[in-house]
Amino acid sequence: MRELLFHFFAALTIVPAFFVATSRKPVNAAMNMLVSFVGLSALFVMLETYFLAILQVLVYAGAIVVLFLFIIMLIDAGKSPHPKLIRYLASLAALALMVFAGYALVFGGGSGPFAEISVVAPANMARTFGVELFTRYLLPFQITGFMLLIAMVGVIVISKKAEAEGGAE
Amino acid sequence: MTVALEHYVFVSILLFAIGFFGVLLRKNTLVVFMCLELMLSASILALIAFSRYNATAANPLMEGNLFVLFIIAIAACEVSVGLAIIVTLWRRHQTVELNEINELKH
To answer: Which domains does chain B have, with CATH numbers?
Structure first.
């Protein structure tokens, strides 16, 4: 049952990801990315990191995809033309090479018997997260918060500047 | 057959390779950006898988998961700034196709 679910969720992650890379409309790409992120969060649930699965759905599948859709609607990005065949083939060759190299690295190394997931009580994961964040990782946590502020200010500056230039022209 | 660490790492490799494929293939800046996000989430999956499979009851090993928390926060920053840049690009050139943006060439 577990491996069946794993294969299902892995397919749910991988197949829409491929359509993100190949679909000609950006809106379809964003919708496929949404499905892919939901599959990824299901994989996180299978890894018993429930808190990060929730975070994945909230931040990625929620906020980031909505932001992408908003920008797509805003700038009215239409259909892209078909990529040239030579470009398609070269990219496909790079994909095949990476997958083959990854397969050889992961499964071909004679890595011994595959380990089953070890049982750690992850029941109070958010609590452990909070304790760790506010004790050992307090400085990185605050730096991250500051970075969000910097990003916000940066975005405001970027859009302000463009508006001023557009007005001058 | 049990679901082992190798399987998760291989899914992560597949996701990363597809993201790389998209970055090479597409010319639309938005789709390239989405494929970058896919590559980022592939690395997140690998990190979580490694940290989960190396955890024991004595050592819950939250470091990998905490690292993922930081990555998600930074990714949110990155997306907002990147999309602002794309909107600015659209305002200046009325296009998001990468091959039509050649300001730095001349």
So the answer is: 5-100 (1.10.287.3510)
Closest chain B CA to residue A139: B70
Q: What is the dihedral angle through the alpha carbons of A39, A68, A97, B13, rounded to the nearest 10 degrees?
A: -40
Q: Which residues of A touch B70 (CB under 8 A)?
A: 140, 144
CA dist B54 → A54, A57, A100, A120 (Å): 22, 25, 26, 10
Residues 9-68 of A with CB under 8 A from B: 10, 13-14, 17-18, 20-23, 26, 29-30, 33, 36-37, 40, 43-44, 46-49, 51-52, 55-56, 59-60, 63-64, 67-68
* pLDDT tens-place values along chain A, 169 residues long: 778 899 999 999 999 999 999 888 889 999 999 999 999 999 999 888 888 899 899 998 889 999 999 998 888 767 777 777 888 888 888 889 988 888 888 877 665 555 565 555 555 677 878 888 898 889 999 999 999 999 999 999 988 865 555 554 4
Q: What is the pTM of this model?
A: 0.87
